[in-house]
Each structure stands twice: as structure tokens, then as C-alpha cells.
Amino acid sequence: MPDGLVEALVETQEELTTAAETWLTANPTVDRSIPRCIENSPKEYKEAIETVRANVEDSDSLGSVLLAVETGINRGWSDAVAIEQCELVRLRNTQAARKKLEAFLSKG
Description:
- This protein has 108 residues and is an all-alpha fold.
- 68% of the residues lie in helices and 0% in strands.
């Protein structure tokens, strides 16, 4: 498991809230915008993205996914989710998406 991905383990689901509150109280100033597992090894994540770019056929969808991932690595979770939402709306309105939706709905 990557360092920083999990801060603590608990035995039961009931212990989760208490463990989370305890950790938050003990770490009030920790920057939570970028998970430590990414913060501690951004080079590895960036190399993985370049590997994907080199080995996966380029498409609008791939570009959107990689943009959201890169945004998450560089600016944090909230920005990544905002990019993902914008890209989903953009992709939904492309000609390719309209054709696929039309084909899907015509099967019914």
C-alpha cells in the first residue's frame, strides 16, 4: 500500500468515525488537498500518465480522464472533481456521444 494512503486501520466499521475524528483533532493543520500517497511520489504518477499517453489510443475521453487525473495530482481532489464534471458535460454534448446515445435508445 502506498505510504500515506491509509493513516490508521480499525477493526470494525463502528470505530471509523471515532478514529477519523481523533486523527483530525491531532492533525488540524495538515494540507488535505492532495493525498500524501501522491504528494510523496508525484514523479511516479506523472510517469504513469506518460505511459498511458504513449500506449493508449488518443481520444476525447482519454484526454478528459488524464486532465482530471493530472489536475488531482497537481491541485487536489476538489479541482479534479470539478474538471471531471466539466469534462463529462462537454463529452456528453459531442457528436460521437450523441450518435452513441441515439443508437442505444433506438434499440429499445
